Amino acid sequence: MNKPSKTNTLDSELIKLTEAKHHDPFALLGRHGQGRDNVIRVYLPYAETVRINSPKGPEFSRTPDTDFFEYHPGNEAIPEHYPLFWTDKDGYDHQHYDPYCFGPVLPEFDQHLFAEGRHWHIYQKLGSHLHSVADIPGVHFAVWAPNAQRVSVIGDFNRWDGRCHPMRSLGSSGIWEIFIPGLTVGCLYKFEILNRHTGQLLVKTDPYGQQFEFRPQTAAIVTAEDSYTWQDGSWMDHRPQHDWLHQPMSIYEVHLGSWRRDHRGNFLNYRELAEQLVDYVKELGFTHIELLPVTEHPLDISWGYQTTGYFAPTSRHGTPDDFRYFVDHCHQNGIGVILDWVPAHFPKDSFALGRFDGTPLYEHEDPRKGEHRDWGTLIYNYSRNEVKNFLLSSAFFWLEEFHLDGLRVDAVASMLYLDYSRDANDWIPNMYGGNENLEAIDFLRQMNTVTHEQHPGTVIMAEESTSWPQVTRPTWTGGLGFSMKWNMGWMHDILHYMQEQPIHRSYHHDSLTFGLLYAFTENFVLPFSHDEVVHGKGSMLNKMPGDEWQRFANLRLLYTMMFTYPGKKLLFMGCEFGQGTEWSCNRTLDWYVLDYAHHKGLQTLVKDLNKLYANHAALHRYDFDHHGFEWIDCHDYQQSIISYRRKSAHEDLIVILNFTPVPRESYRIGVPNPGTYYEIFNSDSQYYDGSNTGNGAVLSEPQPWMNQDHSISVTLPPLAGIILKM
């Protein structure tokens, strides 16, 4: 039976609910009491009438002048989880189970691991997930907001009204949760957060959201549980045993939004990109694709480096399953996939992580530790376990849920140094008085340790531009534990050298040779990345001096050095065919230039270099080991020529590079063994639109030269490199 409500002692608490200020809505809503005091209370701001169990079931009584409805069942049998049937003020009927008749969902063990920063799969618990309780389907929402007085789920299912679904606080964990029955895939949602200290009301998108609206909209989308049928079993089975240290790795770096678009200028879907990009990459011989961040981001011109969705592929190119197809298709065609990933900083957008619960939750409160002034972004508080767990689980998410083969960690230098790009009075020393960010260092070591343990065969690369020691050495020896590091020093030196007029290069010869002094101190990748072709730096082609022929010859020579120099290779899209204009994320590459012989020749050269690199163990077996390299002559600065050997156990190649436009006839170099040497590659070949100066077979002579018992006399083409093999 139903009877009038007795709410006098609860008036103040009920008022808090109506004002969306109550810390514990489950204490008032749902079923409470026993026997004659048994009451079911609901708060439905848009309801006119409410019934229980069926459209003709007992009717709730409305508390006068409010949107509270109560039903007193007495001894009437009411199921533990009861449905509500209600009619709104516009006459539309609704039905759903009462969310406030369900108990807590998130186990204490998960909360405990998260608080310790050791829940690698917390993305499976926080955020939104399809869930069932007693065979009743719905969606479970959970979010970390320890300084909130009240948190609500708002969405297209409740008119974005924070009064409708306030969440349950899980105490000292700082996590809020609610199970909302009846919701399903495709619902849009955010979190409305009331700060308990200031009363500030915030509307935030889900930090753990796995799909978001197309920008500029920012709501998260409830996604289906992963039901994608992967076809890359062979690749994944082989990956843990893959000896990447001694295998070729040539990486094609890509910004998906500007690599290619459709005829209307719209973004291509991940599935379209898979078909087109994989065919292109395979044809050119690259082994891996590295993606500029596809983690969701609001601003196109950030290229993805100002991330707001650390668990979601950007909706610019489709759904999460579309992205799974992209990776799957790459793997089926023997192409690895690496993702640029940004744990160094995040944007200040009001809808995202900045002051998430009204306090500096993910970032440091002090801007001297919590803000990158150069970039206008915030720095993660790596001393907070929950923040570290957020980032660690993001790394796991991409490696596990999308089968990615590695991550390239952006801006590592900015993480390592407390005084990175700061004035003398604008940073705080660590506990020992130094400038090292001890918490960030611990985070990086932990990330590298657990990802390598749990996902063997994957690689984690550092973009680290300083001389920090042991970046790619094991953590148990004091290293940071990265697999590889971008060789920014070599890149800067060689580009500086190549931009000099050839007549002046003899004065800068040390830029060619200095890199070998440290080449084997780390596991280096040689990068000509997107950073070198933006912000007024010009394209790779236009960095080169001279007339058109010389610029292309210089670039062919540069790539020849890159592919024969110790280290794995990385080339940004468009550089492989001599993109003439500086890269812009707002337009596609200048594919039309491939109609011209110079550009087509350069593309063919990169294709052949990739094949040489992959097919000759001497060029890749010891990329990180001094046993794979030996100078023949590094001192010929007057003619701007260097020569060296690349070696493996069963192969020995000779590389000679001429950095002047002057052909050198009868140029003598020492060789290790007597016999006939064959020119297997020449960057001046007619196939690359060169002048076709070179050699066929060259017979050694017993004339000692360069500390060798034998020597050969060769013709060196202008601005070109040649490779010889016995």
TrEMBL record:
SMART domains: Aamy (SM00642). Keywords: Carbohydrate metabolism, Glycogen biosynthesis, Glycogen metabolism, Glycosyltransferase, Transferase. Residues 253-598 form the Glycosyl hydrolase family 13 catalytic domain. The active site is at 410 (nucleophile), 463 (proton donor). It holds the Pfam family Alpha-amylase_C. GO terms for molecular function: 1,4-alpha-glucan branching enzyme activity. Its EC number is 2.4.1.18. The keyword Transferase applies. It catalyses: Transfers a segment of a (1->4)-alpha-D-glucan chain to a primary hydroxy group in a similar glucan chain. InterPro entries: A-amylase/branching_C (IPR006048), Branching_enzy (IPR037439), GH (IPR017853), GH13_cat_dom (IPR006047), GlgB (IPR006407), GlgB_N (IPR054169), GlgB_N_E_set_prok (IPR044143), Glyco_hydro_13_N (IPR004193). It comes from the Bacteria. It is an enzyme of class 2 (transferase). Belongs to the glycosyl hydrolase 13 family. GlgB subfamily. Monomer. Catalyzes the formation of the alpha-1,6-glucosidic linkages in glycogen by scission of a 1,4-alpha-linked oligosaccharide from growing alpha-1,4-glucan chains and the subsequent attachment of the oligosaccharide to the alpha-1,6 position. NCBIfam families: branching_enzym, PRK05402.1, PRK12313.1. This is 1,4-alpha-glucan branching enzyme GlgB.
